[in-house]
Amino acid sequence: QHLVVAADTFIYVGALGKVFQHVRTVLAAMGLFLFTTEHLLDESPEGDAIKPPISTEKEDAVEIAGAVPGWGCQRRRESARFAHSSVYIQQLAARHGFQVLQERGFVLRTEETLPIEGMAYLLMRIDI
Q1: In this structure, are residues 3 and 32 in contact, taking their beta carbons and an 8 Å threshold?
Q2: Predicted confidence (pLDDT) per residue in 24-82, tens digit
Q3: Across all residues in the chain, what is the average pLDDT?
């Protein structure tokens, strides 16, 4: 495969380590991985003051624990959707052999007249 796309999908998935691992196995060298996330602010260790990280599997808990303490994780919001920080995505990209080519913010959708910030990422598989 030369392209894998996941648009408005990862809001239903918490930890993304296994997803990145699988995408790497199906992508050809220099293949592209394009996806969107609901943005989790990562300007402070408290994130954007939503619920703490949630993990359903031991490997996912290790993945979260491997992040910089208090930073770069995924969280489930009041809406039951997951948000992911830019730091978290960058850490996963580096860990799984991807280079971040582009990262762009945008309004993903509107809920009760409030804009929900999203991020679009374009990653390329690299040899590590």
Answers
A1: yes
A2: 999 999 999 999 999 987 544 444 433 334 443 444 444 444 444 444 566 666 778 88
A3: 80
CA 10 to chain centre: 7
Q: What is the dihedral of CA 100, 17, 52, 79, to 10 degrees?
A: 80
Of 115, 16, 33, 122, which Cα lies nearest the Cα of 73? 16
Q: Alpha-carbon distance 33 to 53, whole Å?
A: 25
- Hunting for tokens 């919001």 — which residue is that? 77
Structure tokens at 29: 């060298």
Distances (CA, A) of 51 to 67, 83, 87, 103, 120: 17, 11, 18, 25, 23
Say how far apart CA 33 and CA 52 lie, in whole Å.
28
Cα distances (angstroms) measured from residue 109 to each of 19, 32, 115? 24, 25, 6
45 φ, ψ (degrees, to nearest 5): -60, -20
Tokens coding 106: 């945008």
Q: How many CA atoms lie within 13 A of 27 on its CB side?
A: 23
